[in-house]
Specification:
about 220 residues; alpha/beta; 5 helices; globular
Length: about 220
């Protein structure tokens, strides 16, 4: 499962580079803010094959193209990228998924086929650059309900074990709370990729929903 998601994430990066060739509407070396005058980001004139996944000038990060305090997409750019990646994904029916973005937080609503598609949609939104993803998706197939077979204490233990066994997550920095099958993750992590992986781990352990209270801590390495 981890390998498939890693390959899927890599294919998204390559497809975005080939299909789009860069973020739209950027101007030369100018610090600007998003639509809410909140999140600063740098604009410049991209060359035809620019892609932030591969551009060191914004701080190299294979999954996102930037590090903690470097390039930040505007809300409209982030929404466009999420929708594009949904359209390219064989796992998500983008016609039934609505995306809204407010200050880097993506909200997904609408419906997906099953639990696996819901997890994929949330991970795609994280991989597209969202700081946080609010999952309001409903599932058309509801037979799979792993949280219903576990009490909150057992689910908490399953999530902690999943985080501990993950090669992509430092579980020492993450605490887990569970109530009525809904998991909440707390703590500081090294990068946004770790946030996405931790959320995925909690879903794989059987959580009904996952609330992320994780943040990127520059002091964590």
């Amino acid at each position: 499962m981890k390998l498939l998601h890693t390959l899927h994430r890599t294919s998204l990066a390559i497809a975005f580079l080939m299909g789009v060739g860069g973020a739209p509407g950027l101007a030369q070396s100018q610090v600007v803010h998003d639509d809410y005058d909140m999140n600063p980001y740098y604009e410049y004139d991209p060359y035809y094959d620019y892609d932030p996944y591969l551009d060191d000038r914004f701080g190299y990060d294979y999954d996102y193209g930037y590090d903690y305090d470097d390039y930040v997409l505007t809300d409209s750019e982030l929404r466009q990228r999420i929708k594009l990646n949904f359209a390219m994904s064989p796992f998500v029916d983008d016609d039934n998924v609505r995306v809204s973005v407010n200050r880097g937080v993506a909200t997904l609503s609408g419906s997906v086929e099953d639990r696996s598609a819901m997890i994929d949609a949330q991970e795609i939104a994280y991989d597209s650059g969202a700081w946080k993803v609010r999952n309001k998706l409903s599932q058309r197939e509801t037979e799979e309900r792993p949280w219903a077979d576990m009490g909150d204490r057992e689910l908490k233990k399953e999530i902690e074990d999943e985080l501990w066994s993950s090669p992509f997550v430092n579980s020492d920095n993450i605490s887990v709370g569970v109530r009525n099958g809904v998991a909440t993750l707390y703590g500081g992590v090294e990068n946004k990729g770790e946030i996405a992986d931790a959320v995925e781990n909690a879903y794989e352990a059987g959580a009904k929903r996952v609330k992320s209270r994780l943040w990127v801590d520059p002091d964590v390495s």
